[in-house]
Design brief:
This protein has about 400 residues and is an alpha/beta fold. It has 14 helices and 13 strands. The protein has three domains: about 1-145, Rossmann fold; about 160-225, no CATH class; about 250-405, SH3 type barrels (Roll). Strands 6, 7, 8, 9, 10, 11, 12 and 13 form an eight-stranded antiparallel beta sheet that branches. It is elongated and about 90 Å long.
């Protein structure tokens, strides 16, 4: 598996004579290599571009103890790796577990200084200096497969690379097979993919960043291509095992929910799109939910059905649903806001620029239409973020089901 992933490496070693056989082997494998002596690495004017793997000699200064050498490594990474290096792993020339653990422990404290490696694994340099590097790639592959963090990282990168190429080629192949018309044909295809993404009526939303929707449409296609490239057994999980977590599970779940359900990119208050969530700034607004906890933030969500949204609306009205969010509900409040009057399924989600988990409630009684010009008025509403499709669809379905219930006036 490693051969599909390992296309770029960084070699850091104070002994060029020991590094040369490694470099020669990597070149034979058609892998891009950059070599640095530690003294030269200290002088790089800018942080380096990303590499998939870093081969790192543990003892970069002869005669110095382990802790001193680890300090040297950390300072080099802060200088040369920086914050935008991207995802990578480290192969450390050491077969001593205590040395590898010591480096991991120290580097784990540097997350504010540079991009931390996703994994640090050890191999014996002495073995390869004695026997040669012919088995190196095979040995790295075996090492990665026995480590969940590295195995998933390598495999995921492989899927993305293959899926990315397949998605791009499939789009370009739809254009006419001549370079003279490629640009125009591709623009036509991307335009219609973008329009189809949110169904936004372009004529009524001048200035809307349609390219954002083009990127989202291609990303959806990429997601499909990635999933269908998966054909290997990863053995990530063991049957019957309940996995533990070393940190705050509630916070992690809330952050995952934000990634799954909330979009905060490319927000524009002049673009009215289903799923948009606004803070209600005017307390006299009919959609400002009354009688809620004082710590709550009053909000509305735009819930115009996509089929209505996709056509130019003569009345220029949006359907909205009023609600609120806050950090916690008391036991009594959970009973009140757990009734069927409320959309009550969004519990424990962080929102952009706020790390504390939030609880959302939407009140089905605060539902109706609003002029689009009012939603664009920043003195009345503040656009916060947008609910992604799955969450928006669930809110729309449940609010529609509540609105359409009939009931029977049965004589008791």
């Amino acid at each position: 598996m490693i051969e599909h992933f390992l296309d770029s490496t960084l070699v850091i070693d104070d002994k060029i004579a020991e590094a040369k056989p490694l470099i020669q082997q990597l070149e034979k494998e058609d892998i891009w290599i950059t070599y640095f002596h530690p003294d030269d690495l200290k002088k790089v004017p800018l942080p380096l571009r990303s590499r998939k793997l870093i081969f790192l000699d543990l003892y970069l200064q002869d005669g110095a103890d382990l802790n001193t050498n680890i300090s040297i490594i950390r300072s080099l990474f802060e200088k040369a790796i920086g914050k935008d290096f991207g995802c990578y792993g480290v192969i450390l020339w050491s077969n001593h577990d205590e040395q590898i653990s010591a480096l991991r422990e120290k580097m784990s404290k540097d997350q504010d200084s540079y991009c931390l490696p996703l994994f640090i694994l050890g191999l014996s340099k002495t073995k390869y200096l004695k026997d040669g590097y012919d088995t190196l790639i095979h040995d790295i592959d075996a090492l990665l497969k026995n480590n969940v963090a590295s195995n998933f990282f390598v495999y995921w990168n492989k899927l993305i690379d293959i899926g990315k190429n397949h998605s791009i080629q499939s789009i370009y192949s739809l254009a006419n097979n001549t370079y003279d018309t490629l640009e125009n044909d591709l623009q036509f295809i991307l335009y219609h993919l973008a329009k189809n993404q949110t169904g936004i009526p372009i004529k009524t939303n001048a200035g809307y960043k349609l390219e954002n929707d083009a990127i989202k449409a291609i990303a959806d296609m990429l997601n499909y291509d990635i999933i269908h490239q998966h054909n290997e057994e990863l053995n990530l999980f063991t049957d019957g095992v309940e996995y533990s977590f070393s940190g705050d599970k509630i916070k992690v779940f809330a952050n995952l929910n934000e990634k799954l359900f909330i979009d905060s990119k490319g927000m524009d208050q002049n673009a009215i799109i289903p799923g948009n969530v606004y803070e209600v700034l005017d307390e006299s607004n009919i959609y400002a939910v009354k009688g809620i906890p004082v710590s709550a933030t009053k909000i509305i969500v735009e819930v115009t059905p996509p089929c209505d949204f996709a056509v130019d609306k003569k009345a220029a009205l949006s359907r909205v649903l009023g609600g609120f969010f806050l950090e916690n509900l008391t036991k009594a409040e959970k009973e009140v806001y757990g009734k069927d009057l409320y959309y009550k399924f969004l519990n424990g989600v962080t929102i952009p620029d706020n790390e504390l988990p939030k609880v959302f409630r939407f009140d089905y009684r605060y539902s109706g239409s609003i002029a689009e010009n009012d939603l664009k008025d920043t003195s009345k509403y503040k656009l916060l973020f947008r609910f992604k499709d799955k969450l928006f669809a669930d809110i729309l379905q449940k609010s529609s089901a509540h609105t359409s219930r009939l009931g029977i006036p049965f004589i008791q």
